[in-house]
């Protein structure tokens, strides 16, 4: 089974990843990984750290002349801001006031550390750079089978876009040149207005991201056991992204308000397409198994926890009320989170794909895949 580990602190030497169980014979382009890393750093509303870092991957193992060997792929992304030890050397005062909504307080309660920096270093969303690098390797594998994944910002603050049936190529065309990665310029202007207003108030914002995956074959995941269901695996991976508080598959919450007759996708058959569906309310997954229709997911991100105009908190030593610290951060990072979401979806789809079609070498997987498509 494909596995993925990350390591690294936000201001440590580097972020590190290991992908284990990745098949042999896949061409991996470093430029494509770097392009995804750079996308993760972009989007209107990001903070000063993104001007410091220029994330680039260095692959350390698992490749020979750009082709995977089947051995663990390890990589690192060096940090430019690696001040983790400077704090100690200069005896920079320990951070003792936890920020509401960040890991600070819970980390303190769990690990009983006197300096909250020791918690926030790993809790920082900077870890997602490693997820994007690993996800990009998976995306390149999926590309061998024409599987494509995209994200766009469907909401910021109170502005929320209606659901749509756009294809990936339409989404790409409509988001081109957009500062937020939004498919519609009018609501985008309103979103940017909200971000500017939040910034001027020293506040932060969250939002909604939609992720679409096309050309996923029917049959990934399984109905046979809860932890093999594709939707549960995608939801779990998406929920593991810092600040994600909700995941919807297809109609999601909207299902609860509709009649069955207005919800369920009727089944069709044609000689050219085989079995397919009249609509795609299920978002490409039924009974934990991919249907062959586009996989459509929505996730909600809570506002960034670090506020320039901070909320009330309590000092862990004195137990006295104190304002939370205002540390350098973003006003919003919803666009960047979309790139992270694409990456975790790529990982889960690759894992499920390898389970179905074997995981040793690309040529064997291609043979199995072709035979399966012919059969269905
Ligand atoms: C981030 C790096 C961090 C934050 C942000 C995301 O860098 P720094 O703490 O040095 O400013 O900008 O982290 C958070 C939003 C968070 O909650 O920790 C990054 O690389 O994405």
List the topology elements.
Layout (H helix, E strand, L loop, with lengths): L2 E5 L6 E7 L3 E4 L2 H11 L8 H4 L4 E5 L1 E2 L2 E3 L3 E6 L5 H6 L14 H8 L5 H7 L4 H16 L4 E9 L2 E2 L7 H8 L9 H16 L6 E8 L15 H10 L4 E6 L17 E4 L3 E4 L7 E2 L2 E2 L4 E7 L10 E3 L6 E3 L10 H24 L4 H14 L1
Antiparallel strand pairs: 1-2, 2-7, 3-6, 4-7, 5-6, 8-9, 8-10, 10-16, 11-16, 12-13, 14-15, 17-18
Helix pairs in contact: 1-6, 6-10, 9-10
The structure holds ligand EPS.
What does this structure look like?
33% of the residues lie in helices and 22% in strands. The protein has helices at 30-40, 49-52, 84-89, 104-111, 117-123, 128-143, 168-175, 185-200, 230-239, 334-357, 362-375; strands spanning 3-7, 14-20, 24-27, 57-61, 63-64, 67-69, 73-78, 148-156, 159-160, 207-214, 244-249, 267-270, 274-277, 285-286, 289-290, 295-301, 312-314, 321-323. The protein is built from 11 helices and 18 strands. The two termini are 25 Å apart. It has a single domain (3-375), classed as Chorismate synthase, AroC fold (4-Layer Sandwich). The strands form 6 sheets. The protein has a 5-stranded antiparallel β-sheet. It is α+β, with helices and mostly antiparallel strands. Bound molecules: ligand EPS. Ligand EPS is lined by residues 10, 47, 49, 81, 124-126, 128-129, 304-305, 328-330, 333.
Describe the structure concisely for a colleague:
This protein has one domain: Chorismate synthase AroC (Chorismate synthase, AroC fold). It is about 35% helix and about 20% strand.
């Amino acid at each position: 089974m494909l596995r993925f580990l990350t390591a690294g602190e936000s201001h440590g030497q580097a972020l590190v990843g290991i992908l284990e169980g990745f098949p042999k014979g896949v061409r991996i382009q470093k430029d494509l990984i770097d392009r995804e890393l750079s996308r993760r750093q972009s989007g209107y509303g990001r903070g000063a750290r993104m001007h410091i870092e220029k994330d680039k991957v260095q692959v350390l193992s698992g490749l020979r002349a750009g082709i995977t060997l089947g051995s663990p792929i390890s990589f690192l992304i060096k940090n430019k801001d690696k001040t983790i030890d400077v704090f100690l050397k200069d005896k920079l005062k320990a951070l003792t006031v936890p920020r509401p909504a960040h890991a600070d307080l819970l980390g303190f309660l769990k690990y009983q550390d006197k300096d909250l920096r020791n918690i926030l270093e790993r809790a920082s969303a900077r870890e997602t750079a490693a997820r994007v690098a690993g996800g990009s390797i998976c995306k390149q594998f999926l590309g061998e089978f024409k599987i494509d994944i995209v994200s766009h910002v469907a909401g910021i603050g109170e502005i929320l876009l209606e659901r749509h049936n756009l294809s990936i190529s339409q989404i790409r065309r409509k988001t081109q040149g957009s500062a937020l990665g939004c498919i519609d310029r009018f609501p985008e202007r309103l979103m940017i207005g909200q971000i500017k207003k939040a910034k001027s108030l020293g506040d932060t914002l969250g939002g909604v991201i939609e992720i679409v995956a096309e050309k996923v074959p029917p049959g990934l995941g399984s109905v046979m056991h809860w932890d093999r269901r594709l939707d549960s695996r995608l939801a779990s991976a998406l929920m593991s992204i810092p600040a994600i508080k909700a995941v919807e598959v297809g109609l999601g919450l909207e299902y609860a308000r509709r009649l069955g007759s207005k919800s369920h996708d009727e089944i069709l058959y044609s000689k050219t397409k085989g079995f397919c569906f009249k609509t795609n309310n299920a978002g490409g997954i039924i009974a934990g198994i991919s249907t062959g229709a586009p996989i459509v997911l929505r996730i909600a991100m809570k506002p960034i926890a670090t506020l320039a105009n901070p909320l009330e908190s309590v000092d862990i030593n004195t137990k006295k009320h104190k304002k939370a610290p205002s540390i350098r951060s973003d006003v919003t990072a919803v666009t960047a989170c979309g790139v992270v979401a694409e990456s975790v979806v790529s990982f889960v789809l690759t894992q499920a794909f390898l389970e179905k079609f074997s995981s040793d070498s690309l040529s064997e997987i291609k043979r199995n895949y072709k035979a399966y498509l012919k059969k269905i």
